[in-house]
Design goal:
GroEL; 21 helices; disordered C terminus; elongated; 2 domains; GROEL, domain 1; 14 strands
């Protein structure tokens, strides 16, 4: 139902216009991803103005690639992006729960419940729901716990090969590494057309050698990482026109060549470069049998430095003494160029152990989607190791909803209506999952609530193949607790932020493009 329909049908006070408008925007965003959730969820096709197509059922990809103008809708997407950054999964659940929270919140406001009381109840309900969910969490026994394969299989959309790769990578990395706040298993994933699925200790540099005359295989690798262009320092053109300036230019070139010779004398046989490489450097290093990889991404340079123990160096650092340069050199057992896949493999680094999960794809069109699926599986496995697991398939949300329902019965005051919003949001994941499977959500949600209460179980939900009550833990349908908790938090934050907006005012242009005509407050596109 649109804002105009609601307003004309019930003569709503104008003070609810902002709330209704924003709630409609969030519901529109939720509707864009709700069809993808669950084992029977379908894909979404995104098409740009040039006809380029992305087909995916990954929530964060849909949200970040869809065209959105409405400011409230952008708030949802920003929160989903933060959720993805934090735990790597659960954005679809967070978005549809936020839509359900706001829908019920609007209904309560239109009935006369003060918005401040709704917010108060939502806060309390979300807090209680998180506590109840954490209390029901099952711990994971290290990186080799068999339950992790089920976590990977569910998050990896039932791709067996990706689930197997993910648990192998997790086991190879180890529990201690997986628990490090700065480490992300998903960053270890590389997807390439024509590759065979593989996990190995080492990393891939997704670049080719500077020229064909350079070696393709190295042993006892000594690595130098240049976080800069590998060329002489620039000198201004005006200075070059003077005799002194030209002399300085020749001096800089000579210093640069001496720096390269120092590197060669130190036994460096692999140089990874952030930028370009000058002709002089290419010639000198090729003659010395040094393998040079230009224009390597900053992320890959950082991983190479960590794996080999190298320290990044600017081009001016080549002026350092040999003894000082020695401290910047990393070591590895082996480096070789894969001619078929057009990348460099660096294996056996003397720095931090590092695993790479290479995901194969049959065609170029599915490479990105295979990578997204693998990243979801990896993020879910890591989250499970850190925070345990809960029954999936919407079961845990229903169990928590029963806890909130019990608390609601003993709560007085109008804040209790905010708890009703949380109750509706907790029922939404199961309702949408069974709806996507072709069943009646009202009927099935009621059946599950009754079955859980009767059996005192938090793992009962619906088998989407048969429509019957089933135990999700027995079926292997499990989700990471952290993903579920963050989804609840994100949904609550979105709902509270939107509910608190009382008025929408267009800002005056403070130096922006005067020719710009787009006004999201006029068109309210989603």
């Amino acid at each position: 139902m649109s804002v105009k329909q609601v307003a004309s049908g019930s003569e709503v006070d104008e003070r609810f216009a902002a709330l209704l408008t924003n709630a409609n925007a969030v519901r529109a965003i939720a509707s864009a991803v709700e069809g993808t959730i669950g084992s029977k969820g379908l894909d979404t096709m995104l098409v740009d103005r040039y006809g380029e197509v992305v087909i995916t059922n990954d929530g964060i990809t849909i949200l970040t690639k869809m065209e959105v103008n409405h400011p409230a809708a952008r708030m949802v997407i920003n929160t989903a992006r933060a959720q993805e950054e934090e735990v790597g999964d659960g954005t679809t659940t967070a978005t549809i729960m936020a839509g359900a929270l706001l829908t019920e919140g609007v209904n309560q406001a239109l009935r006369g419940v003060p918005v401040t009381r709704i917010i108060e109840g939502v806060r309390k309900g979300i807090r209680q729901a998180i506590e109840a969910m954490e209390a029901r969490s099952r711990p994971v026994k290290g990186a080799d716990d068999p339950i992790l394969r089920q976590v990977a299989l569910v998050a990896g959309r039932e791709h067996d090969d990706i689930a197997d790769l993910t648990v192998k990578a997790a086991s190879m990395v180890g529990e201690e590494k997986l628990r490090e706040p700065s480490f992300k298993l998903a960053d270890c994933i590389v997807a390439q057309e024509g590759a065979e699925n593989e996990v190995f200790m080492g990393l891939i540099i997704d670049r080719e050698p500077l020229n064909d005359a350079m070696p393709r295989k190295l042993e006892d690798v000594r690595v130098l990482i240049i976080d800069d262009d590998l060329e002489p320092e620039e000198i201004e053109e005006e200075a070059l026109s003077t005799e002194a300036g030209f002399a300085r230019y020749l001096e800089i070139k000579e210093e640069f060549k001496k720096g390269l010779q120092k590197v060669i004398d130190l036994g460096v046989n692999l140089i990874l470069v952030d930028g370009g490489v000058s002709d002089d450097a290419e010639e000198i290093l090729t003659d010395a049998g040094v393998l040079v990889m230009p224009r390597v991404s900053g992320a890959q340079l950082k991983r190479a430095a960590e794996h080999t123990g190298a320290r990044m160096l600017k081009r001016t650092g080549l002026k350092k003494r040999k003894k000082d340069l020695e401290g910047y050199i990393g070591r590895a057992d082996e480096a070789y160029v894969d001619e078929k896949l057009e990348h460099l493999r660096l294996v056996g680094g003397r720095g931090k152990p590092m695993a790479t999960m290479l995901v194969g794809a049959s065609t170029e069109e599915v490479v990105d989607e295979r990578e997204r699926i693998a990243k979801d599986a990896a993020a879910a496995v890591q989250a499970a190791v850190r925070g345990g697991v809960v029954p999936g398939g919407g079961a845990i949300e229903i169990a928590v909803a029963r806890d909130i329902e019990s608390a609601r019965a003993g709560m007085r005051g109008m804040a209790a209506y905010g708890l009703d919003c949380v109750l509706e949001a907790l029922k939404k994941p199961l309702g949408q999952i069974v709806s996507n499977a072709g069943f009646n959500p009202l009927e099935k949600v009621g059946d599950v609530m009754a079955a859980q209460a009767e059996g005192d179980s938090d793992s009962l939900a619906i088998d989407c193949d048969t429509g019957e009550i089933a135990d999700m833990m027995s079926m292997g349908v499990v989700d990471p607790t952290l993903v579920k908790v963050h989804a609840l938090k994100a949904a609550g934050e979105i709902a509270e932020a939107i509910l608190r907006i009382d008025t929408i005012i267009k800002k005056k242009d403070e130096g922006g493009d005067p020719a710009a005509t787009e006004d999201p407050l006029e068109e309210m596109d989603f």
